[in-house]
């Protein structure tokens, strides 16, 4: 009797296993196709950033950054979450790299935490050797596993000391010099293995959200202080970051590039914009929005100065001026241009009257009105994040716009991806079946392919955001952008491969 029962149990187990196998085969087969044409030498990869995944915020001599401070202020982040532990990547780095390798990820974009290398941000206070050791270990491990490394030097985690002592990006003199030293240290220690350097990630966001009263670290711009207010601070912060970029590039080109044979660039974010109505004013408003967003940083690094439309529209001497020497330093200061692109929206010419000059915000200065909706209809399906609506053709238009205006030799899509709706609140098994993300990636990559293969845009690389779920800034862990799921409820933050990772892994195979 007992034997018969065991036999029966075994048969049931075998049947269940077979059913699971069949269902996984069906679900793999039903994933969108991966046959999207790209040039043979196109590079596919995945991206992350230090504060969003590392954790270990007080370990091994790391100093505090503005995001440590900001996330610890009650009420600033969803559910008061912080990056203290994040994905604990600091301790799980080898495991994560093994996972990347198993997925066939050949290019990895990571960022280096400035306060891990220079705890106060300043060279004169000493280099944290343990920080150097950590990144050496990580980079060696990546290289040993056949993964090329692209490093972002500034992904928003400014050392708190620089903020407190000098006002951070509001002070170009000290902070620019400090960034130049930090970059120099990174090139010297890691440049033999890092072949792509990105000076800044989305300086627009640091400037407008961090210094324009938008609840983002360092949280400046609300009310006025001796340094300024939301009317001029974003422009000051942007100006410093541009100068810091130019100085870091000069250090790289003068001291390292010839030996190390790497490339250096900057990553800028932009949506693409479509006119709210079919009027000349609205078309012009779209162009203005692109120039105020992308052009604010791209014009200086390609042409040496801000777009004319910004000089005309930002009244009252709030847009700082570059000296002739600074213009020369900036002009041509990129080997590649990085684009972070997720969504598109509608833009119209501003109809409401402008406030007095000294009370105008960055948005006022653009004289545009934006929306994700037209006549109550969204531009595309909404993701989890409030700002993200799926509109694949936008990436092709954006890439063409960049090619036309700047004619760059190399464009890297340094981020593109999506947070699938409801992924944080559904059972893990359901979250892993992330068809929304698979379709998003399929459709956006098809448009990138069209830009490259049909329009002749010089896109050379694409990094999906993100390798794994992570701390999504003010949204904490509620928005999941990963192709790998991180179970924040399990004590060791177990990783699970989502269907999108399997799909991406198939797509990149021919290019590995
Ligand atoms: C851009 C940022 O670089 C990254 O840190 C962020 O997580 C993603 N966009 C998604 O919002």
Automatic annotation (TrEMBL):
- A GO term, aspect molecular function: beta-glucosidase activity
Keywords (alphabetical) are:
Glycosidase, Hydrolase, Signal
- One GO-annotated biological process of the protein: carbohydrate metabolic process
What is an example of a Pfam family matching this protein?
A: Glyco_hydro_1
The answer to keyword S-adenosyl-L-methionine applying to this record is no
Q: Which residues form the signal peptide?
A: 1-28
What family does this chain come from, according to its entry? Belongs to the glycosyl hydrolase 1 family.
Q: Which PANTHER family match?
A: GLYCOSYL HYDROLASE, LP05116P
Name used for this protein in its record: Glycosyl hydrolase family protein
Give the lineage. Eukaryota, Discoba, Heterolobosea, Tetramitia, Eutetramitia
């Amino acid at each position: 009797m007992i034997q018969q029962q065991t036999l029966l149990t075994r048969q049931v187990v075998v049947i269940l296993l077979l059913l699971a196998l069949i269902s996984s085969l069906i679900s793999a087969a039903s994933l969108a196709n991966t046959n999207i044409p790209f040039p043979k030498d196109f590079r596919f990869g995945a991206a992350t950033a230090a504060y969003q995944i590392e954790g270990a915020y007080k370990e091994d001599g790391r100093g505090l950054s503005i995001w440590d401070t900001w996330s610890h202020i009650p009420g600033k982040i969803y559910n008061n979450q912080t990056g203290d532990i994040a994905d604990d990547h600091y301790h799980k780095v080898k495991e994560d790299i093994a996972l990347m390798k198993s997925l066939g990820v050949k290019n990895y974009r990571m960022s280096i935490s400035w306060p891990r290398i220079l705890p106060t941000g300043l060279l004169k206070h000493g280099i944290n050797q343990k920080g150097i050791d950590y990144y050496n270990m990580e980079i060696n491990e990546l290289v040993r596993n056949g993964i090329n490394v692209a490093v972002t030097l500034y992904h928003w985690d400014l050392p708190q000391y620089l903020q407190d002592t000098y006002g951070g990006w509001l002070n170009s003199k000290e902070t620019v010099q400090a960034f130049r030293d930090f970059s120099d240290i990174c090139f010297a220690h890691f440049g033999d293995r890092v072949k792509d350097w990105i000076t800044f990630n989305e300086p627009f966001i640091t400037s407008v959200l961090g210094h324009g009263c938008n609840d983002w670290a360092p949280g400046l711009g609300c009310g006025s202080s001796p340094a300024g207010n939301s009317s001029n601070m974003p422009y000051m912060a942007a100006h410093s970051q541009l100068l810091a970029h130019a100085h870091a590039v000069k250090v790289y080109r003068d001291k390292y590039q010839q030996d190390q044979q790497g490339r250096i660039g900057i990553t800028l974010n932009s949506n693409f914009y479509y006119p709210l109505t079919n009027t000349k004013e609205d078309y012009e408003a779209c162009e203005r929005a692109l120039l105020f967003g992308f052009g604010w940083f791209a014009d200086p690094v390609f042409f040496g100065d801000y777009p004319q439309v910004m000089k005309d529209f930002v009244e009252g001497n709030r847009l700082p001026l570059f000296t002739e020497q600074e213009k020369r330093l900036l002009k041509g200061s990129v080997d590649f241009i990085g684009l972070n692109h997720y969504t598109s929206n509608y833009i119209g010419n501003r109809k409401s009257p402008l406030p007095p000059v000294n009370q105008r915000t960055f948005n006022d200065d653009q004289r545009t009105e934006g929306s994700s909706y037209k006549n109550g209809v969204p531009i595309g399906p909404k993701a989890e994040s409030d700002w993200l609506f799926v509109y694949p053709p936008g990436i092709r238009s954006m890439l063409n716009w960049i090619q036309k205006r700047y004619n760059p030799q190399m464009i890297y899509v340094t981020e593109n991806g999506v947070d699938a709706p409801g992924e944080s609140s559904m059972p893990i098994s359901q979250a892993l079946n992330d068809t929304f993300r698979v379709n998003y990636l399929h459709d956006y990559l098809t448009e990138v392919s069209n830009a490259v293969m049909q329009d002749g845009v010089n896109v050379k690389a694409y990094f999906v955001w993100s390798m794994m779920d992570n701390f999504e800034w003010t949204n904490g862990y509620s928005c999941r952008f990963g192709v790998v799921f991180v179970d924040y409820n399990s004590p060791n933050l177990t990783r699970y491969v989502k269907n999108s990772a399997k799909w991406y892994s198939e797509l990149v195979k021919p290019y590995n």
